[in-house]
Every structure is written in structure tokens, then in C-alpha cells.
Amino acid sequence: QVQLVESGGGLVQAGGSLRLSCAASGRTFNRYTIGWFRQAPGKERELLTAIDWSGGSTYHADSVKGRFTISRDNAKSTVSLQMNSLKPEDTAVYYCAGAVSGTGQYIYWGQGTQVTVSS
User: How many Cβ atoms sit within 10 Å of the Cβ of residue 71?
Assistant: First the structure.
């Protein structure tokens, strides 16, 4: 089992940057694909970006491509999300989640961290 804890959220002005971290506990962290999702009020949760167990393959949704970058450090059991050029529409609760590699099923979730971008 893997437990995930997000940190790094906060309030930032439009055009600014934030770096979110997802810290994992559990010895099998490197077996999991890790994804970052977000959910804004009244909207469905959406997958923004994901990284495979090795860090060699990533996915980015069109809405964040070129602005957000995902990376992982298996030695430290962490996954980071660097968010640049933030927009007010990026305001949401951000979650990291883990899926057993190759399944696409996210079964472990963090509690979320709020990101608010002011205009």
C-alpha cells in the first residue's frame, strides 16, 4: 500500500509559479505511475499529467502542456509538479494519485492541496 501526501499549494498571482510535491510512503513506490489531478468547484476532476515508474515516460494534458512539468525521484519517494505561467483558471484542489504500472487505474490518492491563482 502507498500513502500520498501533497504539499506546496497556496495563493499566487497570475503569471506566477508554484511547485507541488507528492511524498509517498511504502516500499513499492517505484512500481506506481503517479498522476496529478485537479478539481475546481463545480467541475469534474481531470488528469493533468502523469509519469511512469521509471520517470522515462510522461503525459501532459493540452491544458497544461508547456506550462506544467512532472518529475519524480524514486530514491526520495517523491513526485513534483512545477507549475509556471499560472492562470486564474488553474485555481483548484490538486491531488496526486498512484496507479499500478500498466493498469491506468488510480487506486491511491492524497488529500489534496489548494492552489489559488489571482488575476
Answer: 12
Rounded CA separation 53/99 (Å):
10
What is the identity of the amino acid at 94? Y
Spatial CA neighbour of 33 closest among 51, 47, 46, 48:
51
pLDDT score, position 103: 84
Three-class SS of 23-38: EEECCCHHHEEEEEEE
Q: Block means of pLDDT (10 residues each) for the chain, length 119 residues?
A: 94 98 86 95 96 91 96 94 98 96 90 97
| pLDDT reported for residue 40 | 96
Closest CA to 2 of 81, 76, 75, 107: 107
Q: Are 94 and 37 in contact (CB under 8 A)?
A: yes
